[in-house]
């Protein structure tokens, strides 16, 4: 860093870290959502089975 300003290099490193972090965050959210929807489907199935 020269006198408190970002280098182009530092900025690129920061951007790549940020992109990587946001991608992993999105994937984690997606997995959570898929798991919760799966469990919701399973509970509906068990309810339907129990009703029969």
Structural class: mainly alpha
Taken as a percent bin, the fraction of beta residues is: under 5%
Number of helices: 1
Radius of gyration: 22 Å
Q: In which range does the helix fraction lie?
A: over 70%
The shape, in one word, is rod-shaped
Give the low-confidence spans. Answer: none
Tell how many strands the DSSP assignment holds: 0
**Cα-to-Cα separation, first versus last residue:** 69 Å
Return the string of H and E elements: H
The oligomeric state is single chain
For the sheet with most strands, the description reads: none
The average pLDDT value, as a whole number, equals 84
Verbal overview:
- It is a single chain.
- The longest helix has 44 residues, at 8-51.
- This protein has one helix at 8-51.
- With 52 residues, it is mainly α.
- Helix content is 85%, strand content 0%.
- The radius of gyration is 22 Å and the shape is rod-shaped.
């Amino acid at each position: 860093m020269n006198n408190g300003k970002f280098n182009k290099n530092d900025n690129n490193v920061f951007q790549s870290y940020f992109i990587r972090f946001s991608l992993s965050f999105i994937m984690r959210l997606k997995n959570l959502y898929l798991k919760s929807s799966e469990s919701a489907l399973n509970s509906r199935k068990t309810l339907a089975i129990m009703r029969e």
